[in-house]
Design goal:
Number of helices: 16
Radius of gyration: 29 Å
Structural class: alpha+beta
Order of helices and strands: HEHEEEEEEEEHEEHEEEHHHHHHHHHHHH
Strand order of the largest sheet: 2-5-6-9-1-10-11-12-13
Largest sheet: 9 strands, mixed
Shape: elongated
Strand content: 15-25%
């Protein structure tokens, strides 16, 4: 059904379950390393492989990270909670159960405010947080020999248990109502804000393309005017912000078509298809009782003291929403300029560049123009470019002091991105420094005058604007490294003309 037609008849209700892989050096319940991309099955031990007689021990850094995220999400922190066993069989679960939390989560009853741009202006939504709980990640299964990479049609499957046991935080929202046609945008804005919050806390790299941030998207519809929610579907492991938005939109249209034809929406998990923007059925969705939760007998309860919680609260960094408000005021930005920074995912990068010494306007210019273009061409996120805010600040400094022109600065950025070193190293290796001393420029100026006698005569005759052609010749001769202002002054001096 067309999206507008679906929204005219039905009201969407969303629920988002977001998994964040923590950036700890070791796994949740053992000391195995967590390096992404390691050789398969090289970061495993008897504990994360669940061999007989092995016993888990809670990762203290993961516990601290969970509390810090809960506090940043305005949650209450439990003074006592337990781990539970969530029982189900998958080949990538070595134990045949997952250590998680069920009815006693560490963090609960929070909220996160998000802003969505509309034609009428920004609109704020409060997303209520049901819980933040700790658990462990599964291994990774690869289905080979087929065309799709999925189990259907594959000739065989292999399992890498390196990821099994990596600390996960699951953030579960309460049902999100009254979003109407903005539902896909609200979902995207929530995951974006949550990602930025986690990044600000420094507890995960939240790289969706590597799976360290994944979102399960729940959607249900109810007829306009009804009070009872419809049956939900859950689209699993959506791994990009754009795909979160597309998955919500597609499921609204799919549910509406099923309901309008007199059909019944099936409670099931579904898989998002990047190539089509649609979803396909996975399996019927279990209820909590199907997992046969019970307290894990091998782990003691977790009981963070009130003093420790308050100490962690006091140590929280400036959070993204507060940072945006401060930066808008300090840099005197308009709503549109701030929105451009946020939409480019550049606000943290620009702020770090300013902290490194660059003026805000110059930092914004380089990140939003030149570097955003490079990121688009390379099909990577802006933060994934191999240049640091400090290096960008140094490029800005070199331009400001006259050592580089903007054109030369772009070449310096080319060199930094190519791995040739920092800005000063690239300038030295490529010989890119601006030529602005008279002895070095004099020869180029004299040659330009000699090669263009007709232009020189025009300048002598009072047509000062014609000097631009001679400046261009000097710039060409010096490969763009001449100080254009000083070159012009020398040309007029040589020709006996007052500038």
């Amino acid at each position: 059904m067309a999206y507008d037609d679906a929204l005219a008849k039905y009201e969407p209700v969303l629920g988002l379950e977001t998994h964040v892989e923590l950036g700890t050096r070791s796994k949740m319940f053992c000391s195995c390393a967590t390096t992404f991309g390691a050789e398969p099955n090289t970061q495993v031990c008897p504990v994360c492989l669940a061999l007989p007689g092995s016993l888990p021990v809670v990762n203290g850094t993961a516990l601290e990270s969970a509390i810090r995220l809960g506090l940043a999400l305005n949650c209450s922190i439990a003074s006592w909670c337990r781990f539970a066993r969530k029982n189900y069989f998958y080949p990538d679960m070595p134990k045949n159960y997952q250590i998680s939390q069920y009815d006693e989560p560490l963090c609960f009853d929070g909220h996160l405010d998000v802003v969505v741009d509309t034609p009428e202006g920004p609109r704020e939504f409060r997303v209520e947080i049901e819980r933040v709980h700790m658990e462990e990640d599964t291994g990774k299964t690869a289905h080979l020999g087929g065309a799709t990479g999925r189990i259907h049609g594959a000739e065989y499957s292999i399992v890498d248990y390196n990821r099994a046991g990596i600390p996960l935080l699951e953030i579960v929202t309460k049902p999100i109502e009254h979003t109407g046609e903005l539902a896909p945008l609200v979902a995207r804005a929530y995951v974006t804000e949550l990602r930025d919050l986690v990044r600000a806390l420094g507890i995960s790299d939240v790289r969706m393309e590597e799976g360290s941030l994944r979102c399960d998207v729940n959607v249900s519809l109810m007829p306009r005017g009804a009070t009872e929610w419809g049956t939900r579907s859950e689209t699993k492991n959506v791994n990009s912000l754009r795909s979160v938005e597309r998955a919500v939109r597609y499921e609204i249209q799919r549910h509406a078509a099923v309901l309008d034809s007199g059909g019944r929406v099936v409670q099931e998990t579904r898989h998002f298809q990047e190539n089509t923007g649609g979803t396909v059925a996975g399996r019927s969705k279990e209820e909590a009782q199907d997992y046969r939760y019970f307290p894990d007998p091998d782990l003691v309860p977790v009981a963070p003291s009130a003093e420790w919680v308050e100490e962690l609260r006091a140590g929280l960094p400036e959070l993204p929403a507060a940072q945006r408000r401060r930066i808008k005021a300090e840099w005197n930005l308009s709503d549109e300029e701030l929105r451009d920074l946020v939409n480019a995912d550049a606000i943290g990068l620009v702020a770090a560049t300013v902290d490194a010494g660059a003026p805000p306007a110059e930092a914004r210019k380089w990140w939003l123009n030149e570097l955003s273009r490079r990121a688009t061409e390379s099909e990577v996120e802006l933060a994934a470019l191999s240049i640091t805010p400090a290096q960008v600040a140094r490029v800005v400094e070199l331009v400001a002091e006259g050592s580089l022109t903007n054109k030369l600065a772009r070449q310096v950025i080319d060199g930094v991105l190519a791995g040739e070193g920092g800005p000063d190293e690239v300038v030295e290796a490529r010989g890119l420094k601006v030529v602005n001393d008279d002895s070095a420029l004099g020869a180029a100026v004299d040659q330009a005058i000699a090669d263009n006698p007709d232009v020189a005569e025009k300048v002598r005759g009072g047509k000062i604007a014609a000097a631009g052609a001679l400046v261009g010749a000097v710039m060409k001769a010096t490969r763009g490294q001449a100080d254009a202002g000083r070159a012009r002054a020398l040309i007029l001096e040589r020709l006996g003309v007052q500038g």
